[in-house]
User: Fold this.
Amino acid sequence: MEIYLPIAEMPVDMFLILGMGVAVGFVSGMFGIGGGFLLTPLLIFVGIPAAVAVATQGPQIAASSMTGSLAYWRRRAIDFKLAYVLLAGGLVGTLLGVLFFNQMRRVGQLDTVITLSYVVLMGTVGTLVTWESVKAALRKKDKSAPVRIAGRHRWFEGLPLKMRFHRAGIYVSAIPLVGVALLIGFAGAVLGIGGGFILVPALIYIFRVPANVVVGTSLFQILFTMVAATIFHSATNQSVDLFLALLLMVGGVFGAQFGARAGANLRGEYFRLMLGLLILIVAVRFATDVFTPPREAFSATQTETVR
Amino acid sequence: MMARVAALIAACLLALLAATPSQAQSLVATLSTENVPILSNFTGERIAVFGVIEPGQSVRPKDGYDIVVTVRGPRGAVTVRRKEQWGLMWLNLDARRYIAIPAFISILSNRPLNRIAQAEVRDDLRIGVDALIPPQAASRGANDPVFRNALQRIRRQQGLFLEGDTKVRFITPTIFRADIDLPGAVPLGAYDVEVALFSDGALAARTNLKFSVSKDAVEQWVAEAAHRSPILYGAATSLIALLIGWLASVIFRRD
Assistant:
């Protein structure tokens, strides 16, 4: 059944979009991530304009992180103080990201920027996560976070503005936390991703936040940055498609429920290995776009219409 | 249904023609609709053009009459980009900007255009896809045939530039019908339809019609809201998202 999207101004197969929502929802429920990094490329490959695909991720990820946050909140697995500190960086990053997005769109290089960023970001994160999990599997140790080695200090541990986060059980400077959140917020607004797949490993590997609070805190932070992204994108480029978002949300919430159940039976390092490989697949898919000669070298975009 | 409408319109046209005494050849045409609403289940639309040729006192051409229907969508600016190799990568490095390019072009005729009239005649009358893309005076290098051809090729693949040399059918030697097929991703706006009558390779008569493509109630309302009060639209969309997220957690709650 076809449905006409009012902002994208094109008809799409309703069940295809719903199905994509379910599939990505399943993956996101399984790994506790937003799934934007899968959904945005899928929408672009289906023919949705890149600008609409990215901007419409906002409400979709907000909906799925709302469901997730509520579940973790009930289990008291959110460090609110940590989330607010991250949010301060995340909001600034999101605003800067939307401004950059609009500028690139004006210059006509948005598609290139999205493609290249996916290759670099996904390639790096995918490789790191895969490598970590392979190492962990080889060591035959089942630990969710690396042990802290006494006497070894990281460069950022000397920074001022140190804060204590009780539920997360860490004592670190707010500066690197805000910095990481700012970068992720920026990437999120430009690429249509929540950034959970970067924030979660960053909090675990860099800041040693225990695994039991990391996902809830990350989801809670992403919920607010995605609401901000939705409003910023709507206000500046009017590319948020309500109908497309509704289809994705409905598909996504169903898929996430089944994904969460499937994810509960997975072991730690296999779980991360699968996530790493999944991210690498997306990176490779985009890399082939950039590194192989295109079948059609030309593209045409309508920039203005007299109606 | 369509056939009945066709017969009815044709009868009206004939009655109209009978009432107007004419000396030379003339042409009367009409469209099956003047407004195409885009509803949520819109996947494309077919508009019929009906027309009657009144030969007048002139001699009937030996090959019969020829009809060319030119449909032109709203015009706008288009940027054509070319991917070029840069180190190991292929990036959009070269671009040309085109102005006043119709977002939709459909040329319908009863036989191939080159058999209807000479190329010079067609260019003069601006008949054919290439003739409808105006030479670009302002933009440097835009007349580069590689880019011009690429623009046409891409739009043809998207189904936005069409040529149908069998799409005009003569019901009788002087009554014809043509079907304009609009794709699902048809651009919104005002469309011009020009019906041209050719007799022995020369233009004998011409008439212009109009129709418009616009979004229907709900789609229009959503699109307007997004443009008129963008912040409110963003806030409302977020609120709906949070509500759906909350509903899901209530429905699927396990503990």
Chain A has a mean pLDDT of 83.
